[in-house]
Amino acid sequence: MKVETSVCAPLSGIRAAGELGLSRGEFARAVQLGLVRPGPRSAGGAVRFSRAELDRVRAGEGFPRELRARIETTAGADAGARVLEVGPSRFTRLARCGHLTPVGYRINRYRAVVWLYLAAELREFAVREPGLLSGAAPPEDRELMAAGADLRPRRWRERHVGLLLRRTADPWSRAAVLASVLPEEEVRAAVPDPAERIVLAALAPPPPYGHPRVPAAEAVARRLLLAEPPEEVRGYRAGLDSALAGARGQSNSTGERGPT
């Protein structure tokens, strides 16, 4: 009986990654993209993974080759340009103008942001938009570049928030995701009740995998987590207001504040 319990017990992320033959970074990316689904958290709050989920992933067609192909990333303009077979300056322009969406980031030793892209998405883009890989930039891109626009942080936040929202149906947890990308003054305006703000803070998602811990680099990366353009802030604020309405309705029906 004890052996059976051990075999069926949920696994830690490190153990689950090992059983799938993935590095820690590869496994984190697979979880981020929803390709490996986490189970309920342990009593201590750690994410756990069921053996049934690992079996499902292993049973996928072409495992592990296909899984690795879906989570393969390129870092920076030089590597991304090689995938698209264009020059680094064109790649940077395509990314800054919002044609390419980063999947992650890291901060280098010079405290500069190095954006990560899914290699598979870059290859799909090359097939889908061959006209953007050569010739003059379209008028919209020229306007954006003349204005000094850089849509990479915003596009990354859209993806990050969307992936987090897909992983939960609980209205308080969804509200916490949306609050996590808003400036503090916006959260206070939307959530005047300090007790509700405590709930949202407790449910806030952790920084994404690869977020630096060194203070100087962390300060750079922290700015990427918060919405900045006014129209982006308004969009997340509207989403937070909607999520809070559902969360408060849930609390009124159950008599409890927080996820049920």
TrEMBL record:
InterPro entries: DUF6397. It comes from the Bacteria. This is DUF6397 family protein. It comes from Streptomyces katrae.
